[in-house]
Amino acid sequence: MVRYDFSEVIDKIGKATRIAVFTHVMPDGDALGSAFALRGALRGMGKQADCFLEKPLSGLYHFFPSDYLMEAEKAAAYDLKISVDCGERSRLGMFADAFEGDTINIDHHREKEPFAQINIVEEKSASTGEIIYELLCAMEAAITPKIADALYAAVATDTGGFMFSNTTADTHRITAALMEAGADFYTLNKHLLLEKTLKKYQLTALCVERMEIVSDGKIAVTYLDYDTVRKMQVTSDDLDGLSSLPRSIKGVEAGALLTELEAGKIKVSLRSDRLVDVSKVAAAFGGGGHMRASGFTCGGSIEELKQSILQKLKTELDRLNA
Q: Which residues, in sequence order, are bridge partners of residue 266?
């Protein structure tokens, strides 16, 4: 099953010898799964391919290969640079300057503006992993069990275990093909979607305690301040999945989680059910993403920002109900 025109991408890959694969800062399962699956397929085709990451992988993603590179100066020397699951150049972090020359961007986020020579951006795909799967099919690349694992992780995490509204029939068809290719779906589902640390449950309890629910139960916002983050030594693993907590409350249409990762630096994750386009709310603060999942990072007071977000969400909900 190939829905997209990959002819230019395949031509670029065919001509390249050394290929660098990048993704966004603080990569999630879709970003990492897409990057490592593509790298594995390219190596199987005889290419010298490497993934570049800003930081070491967290424990949640320990099953991905450990032979990635973190030196920005090395990235510039590759013939071809491919970005996956990244909506804008700045989100490449310290590798943004190296992303020049022959470049390809493969993504499913709403793009602010094209930043590569070739841009395959398909919002209708539930995950970038789906697009990478179709690219590998178009290239007739071998999908080994390890590649299938990576792509399964990409698809499963970005669809919330196939529960989010972005899940399509094509999502399930691709997932079935990955299972047939040897993806260890049970182990991946258990690790990525089911298991939680005690700290995760403690943070969940704090978020529930601090939850502010307005607009007749349709909007919910909660937060983790810097003191909490510091005292509990919160990591990205601990935060994984918490962004969906406000939206999971019955009756809530849109929700937000504010996390003060550093003093005065706040990461905001926005989620919605079926009505509110949270990418519009994120854009108002300089961020972006999907209609149902978006975010941004900014400075300031966590209480003031929380009230601003509540007001933006109320305005968007009121507009839809007008």
A: 260, 298
List residues bridging with 212 in a β-sheet.
221
Instruction: Please check the confidence at residue 110 and state whether its pLDDT lies above 80.
Output: no
Predicted local distance difference test score (pLDDT) of residue 322: 65
What mean pLDDT is reported for the chain? 94
Which pair of structure tokens corresponds to residue 192?
Answer: 């990525």
pLDDT band at 1 (very low <50, low <70, confident <90, very high): low
* Full 3-state SS string of the chain: CCCCCCHHHHHHHHHCCEEEEECCCCCCHHHHHHHHHHHHHHHHCCCEEEEECCCCCCHHHCCCCCCCECCHHHHCCCCEEEEECCCCHHHHHHHCCCCCCEEEEEECCCCCCCCCCEEEECCCCCCHHHHHHHHHHHCCCCCCHHHHHHHHHHHHHHCCCCCCCCCCHHHHHHHHHHHHCCCCHHHHHHHHHHCCCHHHHHHHHHHHHCCEEECCCCEEEEEECHHHHHHCCCCHHHHCCHHHHHHHCCCCCEEEEEEEEECCEEEEEEEECCCCCHHHHHHCCCCEECCCEEEEEEECCHHHHHHHHHHHHHHHHHHHHC
| Amino acid of residue 27 | P
C-alpha span between 78 and 22 (Å, rounded): 12
Q: Find how far residue 305's CA is from the centre of its chain.
A: 23
CA nearest 10: which of 113, 106, 115? Answer: 106
